[in-house]
Amino acid sequence: LAWRSIISASSISAAIALIPLPVLDFGPLIINQSVMVLGIARVYNYKINLERARELVVTFGMGFLGRMLFQELSKLGGLPGWILSAAIAASTTVVMGYAAAEWFEKGQKLSKESLNQLTRKVTSQLVESLKSLGKRKPSRDKLQQAVADSLKEITIDENRKPDA
Hints:
6 helices; globular; mainly alpha
C-alpha cells in the first residue's frame, strides 16, 4: 500500500512540475508530498503529533528544499527543462515516501547521504525514461503514466521489490 501511494504521489508530482514558471508549483508539490507522508503514516498506523511533525520537517526539510529549488531552476534551460523538472520532482517524492515508510515501519531514519544517493539514482533513472517521450511536453496523463511505469521498474531496496 505504501509503495502504491508513493508511485501515485510521484506521478502527480511529475505532472505538477510541468507548470512552466518557476515557483508556481512549489506549494502544490509540498501539499502532495505531505499528503503522501500522512497516508504512509496511516498505512503503518504511525500517529503524527506536533512533535513528530516537527521531526519530519527537520529530517526532510533542508535537503529536499535544496533539491526543489534546483528543480524550479531547471525549468529555465538545459535539456528540455520539463524532463529534468519532472524527474527531480518525482524522484524527490519517491525518496521522501521511501524514507517515511522505512521510518514508520522500522523506526529507522535514513542518513542524509543515503537520501541524497537514492535521489540521484532515481532522478537519473527517470531522466533516462522520460527522454523517450521526446522534446515536447507530453500531456499530464501521458507523463503521469510514463512516471508510474518507470517507477514500477525501480528497485530502491533489494528487500522491497515493488509489486504495484
